[in-house]
Structure formats: structure tokens, C-alpha cells
């Protein structure tokens, strides 16, 4: 499914739509080249889940956690990982228990598309806006039209 995201208003609305359907254990896997809006969409999802305040990019910390949201939330940016085995060193599984994972650059962590709760979103630049190519995992089939 392709979704046009012509501006920030549309990106925020898309983030709210995703947030409204999330369940514990889900993964939102965000892919796209630099500057396509992965962090912008992640911030929209975090805000829609109820976080008030700054949502820093986890580019340098790799993992940011949020306990003040409707669901426990882990926002990870795997861009700096050189090998998927580094995920074990980060203790990602400990953070993920009962939480939603927003994963930027998921391929650097070995990918999550094999998980039933993975909503894969590839962001692409289209003119001045963006387009999202959405691929829902099996547990998303009933939640994502």
C-alpha cells in the first residue's frame, strides 16, 4: 500500500494513525535514505502515544526509551551498527519486552520483517513531499486496511 505524505501535517496524521493501532510487541520498521523522514515519522508516533516534550534522535545513543506513553516504547536508530550481532551487545531484547519498537535502519540490526508484529514502512522522497510504502506483518492484517 502506498500513502502520499505531501507535508508535515500528513506525516503527523500518519503517525497518529499508526500509534492508534499499536500493540505491545509490535515493531514499526522505518527504512529510506537519509532525509526521507524516518525520525520525523517516529517523533509523530511517539507524540501520538502521549509523550510530551523533546523526542531526540537516537542516532548517537542508538536507543531511547519512553515509559510515559500509552504503551512502553523503544525508539532505536541502528544506522551506526556495522554488524547485526551488535544488537545483542545493546541488550535490545531486554528493552523490547512488552514494548513497541520503532526501528530506524532495521536492516543494520538484521531486520524485523520476519516478525508477525512488524509494520514495515519504506519512506521515499516524491517532489517536495514523501510517500510511504507500507507492508504489514501477519498480526497487522486485521488492523491495517
From TrEMBL:
A cellular component annotation (GO) from this entry: cytoplasm
GO biological process: tRNA threonylcarbamoyladenosine modification
Span of the signal peptide: none
SUPFAM superfamilies according to UniProt: P-loop containing nucleoside triphosphate hydrolases
Chief location: cytoplasm
Keywords for the protein's UniProt record, in alphabetical order: ATP-binding, Cytoplasm, Magnesium, Metal-binding, Nucleotide-binding, Transferase, tRNA processing
GO terms, molecular function: ATP binding; metal ion binding; transferase activity
Subcellular location: Cytoplasm
Pfam families found in the cross-reference section: TsaE
Family to which this protein belongs: Belongs to the TsaE family.
Classification via PANTHER family: TRNA THREONYLCARBAMOYLADENOSINE BIOSYNTHESIS PROTEIN TSAE
Protein name (database record): tRNA threonylcarbamoyladenosine biosynthesis protein TsaE
Species this chain originates from: Erythrobacter aureus
Amino acid at each position: 500500500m502506498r500513502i502520499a505524505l505531501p507535508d508535515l501535517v500528513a506525516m503527523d496524521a500518519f503517525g497518529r494513525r499508526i500509534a492508534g493501532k499499536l500493540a505491545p510487541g509490535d515493531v514499526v520498521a522505518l527504512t529510506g535514505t537519509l532525509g526521507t523522514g524516518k525520525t520525523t515519522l517516529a517523533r509523530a508516533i511517539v507524540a501520538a502515544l502521549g509523550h510530551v516534550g523533546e523526542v531526540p534522535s537516537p542516532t548517537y545513543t542508538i536507543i531511547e526509551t519512553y515509559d510515559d506513553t500509552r504503551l512502553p516504547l523503544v525508539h532505536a536508530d541502528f544506522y551506526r551498527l556495522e554488524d547485526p550481532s551488535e544488537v545483542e551487545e545493546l541488550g535490545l531484547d531486554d528493552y523490547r519486552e512488552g514494548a513497541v519498537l520503532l526501528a530506524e535502519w532495521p536492516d543494520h540490526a538484521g531486520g524485523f520483517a520476519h516478525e508477525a508484529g512488524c509494520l514495515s514502512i519504506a519512506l521515499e522522497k516524491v517532489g517536495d513531499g514523501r510517500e510511504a510504502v507500507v507492508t504489514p506483518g501477519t498480526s497487522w492484517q486485521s488492523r491495517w486496511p
